[in-house]
Fold:
Amino acid sequence: MRFVALMFAILMSTGAAAAGSPASTGPSTADTSPAQFLAWHDKLAKDLRTRSYDYVNAAHLAEISKAQATIHQLLDGKQSLDELSAEQRSQLAAANDEVYASLDDAKLDKKVCKQQHVMGSRRPRQVCQTERERRELAEQSQRNMMKKGACTQGSSVSCSGG
Structure:
C-alpha cells in the first residue's frame, strides 16, 4: 500500500512540475478561442527572447517562428475556431505540434549540472552536460558493454539502457 501511495505522490509531483513548462501547458485547438491561442503563442515568442530559454538555438527559434507565423496567418481575424475549414484546422494543429516538437528537442540541449563523486576523493566535482550528451554517453556505454560480451543472457550485468 505504501508503494502505491508513493507512486501516486511521485506522479502528482511530476505532473505539477511539468505544468510549469510552456510546452506542457500550451493551448489545445479543441477548447481555446483564437484570441487565447494567439495570446499564448505571443507570450511564448516573447519569453523565448529571455534568458530562461537560452538553450533554444537559432535553428529551433526559426522553426518556432515559422510555425507561429502560420498560426497567426490562420487565426488572423477569426472569432472562433469553427470559422476554419478542416484543412486549416489540420494546418493549425500541425503548426502547433511543430512548436511543441521544437521546444522539446531544444530541451535536450539544456545544460544540467550535477555533483559527481570521484573515486578516491571525498570532494564531489560538478559535471555539466546536456540531456542529449547524457543519452549519447549511456548508449555508447551500452554498446561498449555489448562489444565486450558483458551483456549476454545470464550475465549479472544489466544492459537495459535504463
About this structure: The chain has two domains: 29-107, 111-147.
